Amino acid sequence: MHLDSLSLACWKEETSRSLLPARVQNILHVDPLSFGFELYAGQRYNLLLSADAARPRAVVVPYKLRRGVDAPHPLLLQLRKHLEGARLVGISQPPWERILNFHFETPGARFTLVAEMMGRYSNLVLLDETGTVLEAAKRISLRLNRQRSILPGHPYQLPPLPAGREAPTAVDCAALLSRQNPRQDLAALLSQHVLAVSPTLGREIQHRLEQRGEITPHALRACLDEFFSTSAVFAPALGYDAQNHLTAFAAYPLTHCTRTEPAASLNDALLEYLSHGQAVDAYARARGSVEAHLAAAIGKTEHRAAQMRAQQADPAVIDRLREDGELLLAYQHLVQRGMDSVTVPDYEGNPREIRVEPRVKASENAAHYFQRYEKAKRAAAEMPRRVAKVEAELACLRQLAADLAIATTRPQIDAVYNALAEGGYIRTRAKRPRVQESAPLRFAVAGFTVWVGRSARQNEQVSFKLASPEDTWLHVHDSPGAHVIIQSGGQALPAEVLQFAMQAAAYYSPLRLQGGGAQVDCTLRKYVRRVPGGHPGLVTYSESTSLWVADAAKEPVIAPQP
Questions:
Q1: Does the 5-136 domain belong in CATH 2.30.310.10?
Q2: Distance between CA atoms of residues 83 and 132, nearest Å
Q3: CB atoms within 10 A of CB 50
Q4: Could you tell me which of 240, 238, 244 has the C-alpha nearest to residue 267?
Q5: In what order do the strands lie in the sheet with 259-262?
Q6: Distance between the two ends of the chain, CA-based, in angstroms?
Q7: Where are the alpha helices (DSSP H) in 312-361?
Q8: In 3-state terms, the chain is what percent helix, strand and coil (to 5)?
Q9: Alpha-carbon distances of 257 from 237, 247, 483, rounded to whole Å
Q10: What is the per-residue pLDDT for 433?
Q11: What are the backbone dihedrals phi and psi of residue 208, each rounded to the nearest 5 degrees, phi first?
Q12: Each residue of 362-389: pLDDT tens digit?
């Protein structure tokens, strides 16, 4: 996402008009690099500031922000110490910078919170009225950045201007165009050499010039003035591609996109963009913590499974141990003390070299080979069961990952955490509250009842407690996800019922987060069997028919019954 200088300038103007002045009522640590401010200006507003490298942002969100970090960050402590109860009185922006300065006043002092929205260099820095750093989301020493430090007690400095870039109002357009090489498009040239021109704006300028049929210094100057002159007017917009996917937002119409639509405000445009694949997650920190534990557990279990598969010995290798022992007994007269190997004829008369222990007799060497043979034979017989057990464990972890991916509440996230803790994957004394497992979703569609499980335990309940053998059972193919039951009792199903159940199976699976369609398998419940190993919701099935859902992200439209 390109939250460029123009977008921030537009957001600053809108927010200054609608929000200021405002009183700070509460401050929350939403995730490691994001902080939320509950503000009151005639009504409550929730301001989210994030220095996340992938999506730095300043946005007023329409929901109550939630604490997502348990241990208080030093910046949070300073923010609460100095800014709770303070008044937010102004927002400013240094020229051409992706930086917003939030100015606060208290009865005895003034403070500035600097929000640097600069990709991987993003940061949040609290300053006192002298411009001294009180604390930052990321402390930066000169060892990490030779150009400037951001440490408590040090004076704050603006980021140095990139070398070779000029202000858009002062750039020499003729000299700039002369730098362009045949393999470089104008958009890349502009974003590399002109301050405040992001890749999105570069593409927009190039498209407008191409539409006008001329790329000359005069035309480029006129186009830059459209965006950066003092008379320029903001017109927030959203941009869509040929597949109608939202791909960009900006403070100006995105005519280079297949379709551009006006937005009520830059804040609304940003919220809309974030909601399409990059939604602001109120539980991002809690979810991220569980995701980290899950990833570690899955990685270790996959490694164990791979090691076990690699340890499965070839039967010929095992038989060779027995043969070596038998050949040593048959030709023990050839084995002398001090030898580390002996060559004897094998059963086909071919020479075979056998390693021996120099310090023991031939019969003892043969006994050693027989012991190794018996051990390898027992291990080979036991290994398939052990591999199956680990693979069932891995399938359970992947189902938990699917549960977490579609979890929408904190209890659902905590249920996954507790399942990992019970399985011994999390070694900690801290326990999250025991959550009561919610019931599967129940829908009534054209006279039929449809049950949908949204977790491993719900899947177990749907498939083996609520369903009868002749009911219809659905599940996405080759992926974790919901078990869906149509209580049909062997009756023929209307197309709308089957279509609804297919859509539910696709939607309540991780495939809805990936975009595109999904293959759904359909069979009767009597062909569904539990996977041995005791993990809830893990099944195998047969006699299935493959169906196709065009859009896995489309939510089923029938509301659940109370």
A1: yes
A2: 16
A3: 25
A4: 238
A5: 246-250, 237-240, 259-262
A6: 40
A7: 315-330
A8: 40, 20, 40
A9: 11, 8, 40
A10: 53
A11: -65, -40
A12: 888 889 988 988 888 887 777 777 777 7
Nearest CA to 415 out of 427, 405, 430, 403 is that of 403
Task: Give the pLDDT confidence of 36-58 residue by residue, as tens digits.
Answer: 999 999 899 999 999 888 778 89
Average pLDDT over residues 231-259: 88
d(CA 41, CA 21): 7
Note the residue count of the chain.
562
Calpha distance 412→456 (Å, rounded):
11
Sorted by sequence, the CB contacts under 8 Å of residue 348 that are 6+ apart come out as none
∠544-550-554 over CA atoms, to 5°? 110
Tell me the CB-side half-sphere exposure of residue 112, using CA atoms within 13 A. 19
Which stretches of 217-335 are assigned E, i.e. beta strand? Answer: 237-240, 246-250, 259-262
The two counts, helices (H) then strands (E), for the chain are: 13, 22
Q: Domain coordinates of the chain in residue numbers?
A: 5-136, 173-275, 283-436, 441-549
Residue type, 210: E
**C-beta separation of 544 from 528 below 8 A:** no
Which CA distances in Å does 434 have to 287, 288, 399, 413? 17, 19, 20, 11
pLDDT for the residue numbered 430 = 54
In this prediction, residue 178 carries a pLDDT of 87
